[in-house]
């Protein structure tokens, strides 16, 4: 196994390469305000982060990643366009797998540039591919923006679309909602009985919990309205199901998705962006004819990405986490910029895993 000095030396070498590509070195603090992270990711992040409390600063977390503090820094004081690189420790709690590291070094590269998003996507991916050259890795790509466009363009209520968007990152729950909204599965029996009651608040029972009667009545009325909503059409449902199964090399994936767009025309602008990205990758020497594209890629582990996503994985080592991951996170800049936003894309690499793969290969 590589030692800490070897990992730090590799990280420094990689950072120098990113500097040569025009990146400015940044070094965000180890302790990050917990409130902002909780607002973005919800309470789930507590299971993955080390939380501490300070009498003056409140709850803080040991840095779970670099992207958030880099975005905060850029949105408050950065010039445009901008490129940043960094290396340092991140911390992740490991309650289920004692073999996975709870502290490791990341090296990253982030681009904030509104002039040519497709070119920036290709720039980040190609620079990562160069850093990883010589390793036996499989590259996977996807585009969260295609799926979000498909959901947001469905001919159904805003409430239903919001529910699907909220569970986009939880495939099983997303599937359950889709089956219910399309009429394939009936609503739960207990709920049906409740909604059929003419006056569900007419029972003489004590109020338990923090919700007021008016809130319960409003929720019941919303459920009744949802039950009266027509199901998602068979054409749209078929289109969504076809979209989620697309897994091909980039050019063939685009061709299949153009066919899907017959039933889901709302994804056409996202497909145009994919086509521009393919051209930009080719211009940088990436062999797109052999580059995998999965329409559902990134749905379980890349919650703040909203466009292009990618990852590099060690062939023959399914026990290892991704060697590198990244993607586009335009919406995150809007959330942290008080209404101001800028297209942004970046990613991180694991020098420790790179060295481990090299040791095994030698």
UniProtKB/TrEMBL annotation:
<comment type="subunit">
    <text>Homodimer.</text>
</comment>
<protein>
    <recommendedName>
        <fullName>Histidine--tRNA ligase</fullName>
    </recommendedName>
</protein>
<feature type="domain" description="Aminoacyl-transfer RNA synthetases class-II family profile">
    <location>
        <begin position="14"/>
        <end position="351"/>
    </location>
</feature>
<dbReference type="InterPro" id="IPR006195">
    <property type="entry name" value="aa-tRNA-synth_II"/>
</dbReference>
<keyword id="KW-0808">Transferase</keyword>
<dbReference type="Pfam" id="PF13393">
    <property type="entry name" value="tRNA-synt_His"/>
</dbReference>
<dbReference type="InterPro" id="IPR004516">
    <property type="entry name" value="HisRS/HisZ"/>
</dbReference>
<keyword id="KW-0328">Glycosyltransferase</keyword>
<dbReference type="InterPro" id="IPR041715">
    <property type="entry name" value="HisRS-like_core"/>
</dbReference>
<dbReference type="InterPro" id="IPR045864">
    <property type="entry name" value="aa-tRNA-synth_II/BPL/LPL"/>
</dbReference>
<dbReference type="GO" id="GO:0016757">
    <property type="term" value="F:glycosyltransferase activity"/>
</dbReference>
